[in-house]
Amino acid sequence: MGTHRDFEKILARHCAPTLAGKKPASLVAFSKNKIDAEKWLYWYTQGMQKRGVHFFELCDCEDRKLVLIYSERLLKKILRKPNVRAYLLGCGYQQASLHAMLKRLALRVQQSGDFPHEIGLFLGYPLSDVLGFIRHGGKNYKLSGPWKVYAGKKKAQRLFESYRACTDAFDDLIENGKTIMCY
Question: 130-179: per-residue pLDDT in tens?
Fold first, then answer.
């Protein structure tokens, strides 16, 4: 049920910018009937921690395992921003430690059965875009890519292009028989 290469293809497609240190976090849903995520997550957790990349299970749902893959350094930097911190405080994130905040996020995901809006902050989306998404109900955005942009269109466009180039590079790496662990 799913090979090592299948797992790597999923990581490359959904997490390349995070694995390369360009994005604080990425979210991946592993289908339980297609891949043995438990096995591969264990193996990759060991290897990636040395590079500052961690895996945090947000939900072991009925048919999928939802995992946040994050750069500890970059995620801490985002979550320390005063405006982000204030917003998260309003969402019930009382604890200052990263692990406590991730546990709170997992609880919010499990309770909502969907994605709470603040997950965008963990994924590195600007607070202005998270608030814009809420305010406009996901409509009237200026640009759409990895997220919907409501402010800072040019900066977001550059980031989107950078993320796309990174994903392409990781895809090429795997297509050429290499492994993400060597990147």
Answer: 999 999 999 999 999 999 999 999 999 999 999 999 999 999 999 998 98
**Distance from C-alpha of 32 to C-alpha of 169, rounded to nearest angstrom:** 27
- AA letter at 60: D
Residue 2 per-residue DSSP state: -
Nearest to 90 by CA among 31, 34, 131: 131
Whole-angstrom Cα distance, residue 17 to residue 76?
16
Rounded to two decimals, the pTM is: 0.92
Amino acid at 164: R
The partner residues of 64 in beta bridges, in order of sequence, read 31
The Cα 159–Cα 138 span in angstroms is 20
Between CA 111 and CA 116, with CA 112 as vertex, the angle to 5 degrees is 120
Side chain identity, residue 67? V
Chain segment 78-117, per-residue pLDDT in tens: 999 999 999 999 999 987 799 999 999 999 998 887 789 9
Residues 6+ apart with CB under 8 A from 100: none
